[in-house]
Amino acid sequence: MPKLLSQIASRPVPACVFVIAASVLTAGSLPVSPARAQQAVAAAPLPDRKPPKPEGETPQAPSLSDIPAKELFSSVTTGAPMAPKPIGFYTAGCLAGGKALPITGPAWQAMRLSRNRNWGHPMLIDFLEELGKEAKANDGWSGLLVGDISQPRGGPMVTGHTSHQVGLDADIWLTPMPDRVLTEKEREDISAVSMLKDPFTVDPDVWTPAHVKLIKRASEDPQVARIFVHPAIKKRLCEDAGSDRGWLTKVRPWWNHYYHFHVRLNCPPGLSGCRNQAPAGGGDGCGAEITNWMVKLRQSEIWKAQEQAKPGKAPPEKPPLKMADLPSQCEEVLKAGRAELLPEPGEPSPMLRAIASKEAGPPLPTPDADMLNILRNGGDPTKDPVPLPDRKPQ
């Protein structure tokens, strides 16, 4: 039984539970008569005080199905000693026989090492290594800075991603690799560079033809199912692509991919138990589709500004995936090799290290007040002029 589970089972009920219960009975702003107070206390149900278990009896361990899957998979530090296999779907699955991308190679460096997310199916690891070498040799790209791939055994993560669960997804920074080996601290602290000038426009001061060549090279690989980029980046790719446009089909606009692009591979051919996403639709996606996405971006910024004006309101969170939500083979993957779910004494938990790690990129740009006014009036901030600020307020 993994140490994490046995420790969970043996934890006593905190005394603060009973203190809180008592405070609820006595709190209030109106005076209460002694008789009313006595009636309230008499009506309150007594806590269920179960008799202590006999000495030597082993506490009942909670079932794996009761623990969020992200806490289990993020606590394992090594790959499952099994044949390589992505199991399930990109957003609900796990990874057997995962392989770690070497943290430093001739044309790549892995970032945010504290997260231990440089694991993937061997097919993806080979793809990343070859992409880095080819882009460095042919496209004027100095090398890849590789962000999150997957955890050692895939599965849900405690931060950052819904997908990346089967070892076939990888984030590649849109920042070129420096011409030196980064230290471990630099890999934790350095931020990727945003490609956006504002929420709707690529920054021409940071965007280069080499970015186009890198994404095009990745998209043209037959193993690649999709590439996700921010809608403004897709719009710019449409403008820069020229007459060769077939590769744009796989490049899909999606939220938040403004300092990296997300590569997703197809399942290995002939492998059962791994489910592909439906193929990307035909066409280059540069007409009505990207126009609709720009409308979505404008609507999103208006909505976010309205929500921020409502104090104390947080968006509802989806319940975390449990083991029962994943393919049944994922429990075998999790337990393979008698993996320990707690670090050695004195070592930080891998889950806590991942939670504490810095964001890989800067915050998404937000519109200023003048741009918001244009949006609320139905205008297009990429075309309508934003009024200059009053330099001489009265």
From TrEMBL:
Alphabetized InterPro entries for the sequence: Peptidase_M74, Zn_M74/Hedgehog-like
GO CC annotations, alphabetized: outer membrane-bounded periplasmic space
Signal peptide: 1-37
Enzyme class: hydrolase
UniProt xrefs under SUPFAM superfamilies: Hedgehog/DD-peptidase
GO MF annotation: an example: metallopeptidase activity
Keywords: Hydrolase, Metal-binding, Metalloprotease, Periplasm, Protease, Signal, Zinc
One Pfam family from the record: Peptidase_M74
One GO-annotated biological process of the protein: proteolysis
Biased composition (Basic and acidic residues): 47-56
Enzyme Commission number(s): 3.4.24.-
Disordered as annotated region, ranges: 41-68, 340-394
Name this polypeptide is given: Penicillin-insensitive murein endopeptidase
Organism of provenance: Methyloligella halotolerans
